[in-house]
Amino acid sequence: NYYIMADHLRTTIFALADGATFEPKGRGYILKKLVKKATLLAYLLGLSTEQLIEVSKKLIAVNSSYYQHLKKREDLIINELKKEIVKTREFIDKSIQELGKYYEPSITAKDIFFWYDTKGIPEELIRFFLAKNNYQFPEREFNQLLEKQKERGRQDRAGKKVAPGLEMKSRRVGAEKRRVPKEIDDERGEKIELLNAYNKSGAAYKKKENLYKEAES
Question: Are 78 and 101 in contact (CB under 8 A)?
Fold first, then answer.
């Protein structure tokens, strides 16, 4: 856990030094996930926010012997990193308070899955809370609920997907040309569907037209 925490912080430090920022999408989202994991591990290891910042400063000092730009941008890196760590630590403290409201003699897998799936509380934090309060983690039941949720997600994605899975391509067979079906990947399918929508054709456009007709009626 110490190695994982340090590695996540080091990756984030280098990215911030290269101009990355914490954002809800793209590489900024990945950085937020890395800091969230590092802060969570620090909490589980008994390290405070201040100690985690000191670890970050030490990482900058160690790596600056080879990458001097880290030292030059240290203030910017630490300021941005500290804001994200504090925000994550506040979320962890709030989650622990939420878990602490539960006083039942036993905790069901549905309770745990509600915390994890609806409240967004990390599984590691739930396990830590349960172990600390002498509760058992229902592995099998929790995994079954998790698998059901994944299956619902797969079905939802399949239901919303309108991009074609095939396209017709010309191919010479002997002395003549024939149009034959060829499988395409998701990215190619989405591009074709976007082009179809622009030309007012394709499954997505037809779906929209049918919806509008239904609404008008």
Answer: no
Helical pair 49-63 and 74-100, crossing angle rounded to 10 deg: 150
Residue 88 is predicted with a pLDDT of 94
For the record, the structure tokens of 48 come out as 């405070």
pLDDT tens profile 109-135: 888 888 888 888 999 999 998 888 888
Q: Which of 207, 216, 162 is nearest to 189 (CA)?
A: 162
Q: Token pair for residue 159?
A: 């239901």
List % helix, strand, coil for the chain (3-state, nearest 5): 70, 5, 25
The answer to whether the predicted template modeling score (pTM) of the entire model surpasses 0.90 is no
- Give the rounded distance of the alpha carbon of 123 from its chain centre: 14
Among candidate residues 13, 103, 147, the one with its CA nearest the CA of residue 67:
13
Largest CA-CA distance found in the chain, in angstroms, rounded: 79
Instruction: State how far the Cα of 211 lies from the Cα of 81, in Å rounded to an integer.
Output: 47
